[in-house]
Amino acid sequence: MDEVEVVVAHSQRATLRVGEVFLKVDVDPAHADVEVRAMAMVPVPTPAVLWCEPPVLAIAAVPGTALGVLGAPSPASPAAWAAAGAAIRQLHDAPLPPWSGRKLDDVAEELDRECAWLLANDVLPAEVVRRNREIAEAALRPWTPAFIHGDLQITHVFVDDQDRVTGIIDWSEAAPGDALFDLAILTLGHEERLDDLLVGYGDADRDVIRAWWSLRSLTAAHWLIEHGFDPDEPGCEFDVLRARMLDS
Fold first, then answer.
1. Rounded to the nearest 5 degrees, what angle is found at the Cα of 227, between the Cα atoms of 226 and 232?
2. Is residue 152 part of a domain?
3. Domain of residue 182, residue span
4. 155 to each of 134, 152, 187, how far by Cα in Å?
5. With 80 as the cut, is the pLDDT of residue 116 above it?
6. Is residue 88 part of a domain?
7. Is-contact 202 88, C-beta < 8 A?
8. Sorting pLDDT into bands at 50, 70 and 90, what band is 212?
């Protein structure tokens, strides 16, 4: 152990790595509470909790490597993606956590607000926003709540060289919610891997997953920009939105 690695840092949250330990510092202690409770409940591999003293949560590193990163092709095999799909199905079939999740009306209000911000600030061409807002409508329908991860980015799922899921990390957004949201977040910017994922997961409404790609990218842009991230990097959120124009 010869250095402290800053994994991610912004005004709300920071994650540091010291050897095989991750230290998560969060201004909202409720996030750590949800994370610890969720990891104790889910039927999938998660990191070991070492200790929790708000505002810091210490967890052990999980073995293996992430499925990939946003903005670059995933190096993981089709079998690894299928294994991830099977693990996510186990999660979605698990009993619901006892706390509440986001409501449909909240999602719709956020979409309206963020689209208005994108247009008012000329962040994207109006036609790109309009078309993706139209596509996103398919996600705004009643869903049967499932136990979802809530932030299932590709960097949060780890697999080993035998294509087994070794750990799923970052559970602070776990809650009852739309199962297809998890599938969409995992495949955001990696749309070509959706078929592999569904081999392990099973049938899912692809139109709704595509709708969540648009909705997530529209609503995430404002936060990303304000916290020093660039959604216009190759393969990231703005490329996802532009790709929908090619589907028209």
1. 75
2. yes
3. 63-247
4. 29, 8, 11
5. yes
6. yes
7. no
8. very high
The yes-or-no verdict on residue 248 having pLDDT over 60 is no
Residue 67 and residue 74 in contact, taking contact as beta carbons nearer than 8 Å: yes
CATH of the domain at 221: 3.90.1200.10
Cα–Cα distance between 23 and 21 in angstroms, integer? 7
Which pLDDT does position 247 carry in this prediction?
Answer: 79
Task: Find the farthest-apart pair of alpha carbons in the chain and give their distance in angstroms, rounded.
Answer: 52
Q: Residue 2: pLDDT above 80?
A: no
- In the block, residue with structure tokens 């939105």: 241
Torsional class of 150: left (φ above 0), alpha (ψ -120 to 50), beta (otherwise): left
226's CB contacts (< 8 A; 6+ apart) are none
- Within-domain flag for 1: no
* 230 occurs within a structural domain: yes
Number of domains the chain contains: 1
DSSP letter at 173 equals T
Q: pLDDT (tens digit, 9 = 90+) per residue, 10-44? A: 888 999 999 999 999 999 999 999 999 999 999 99
CA distances from 43 to 46, 90, 122 (A): 9, 7, 44
Structure tokens at 235: 């393969």
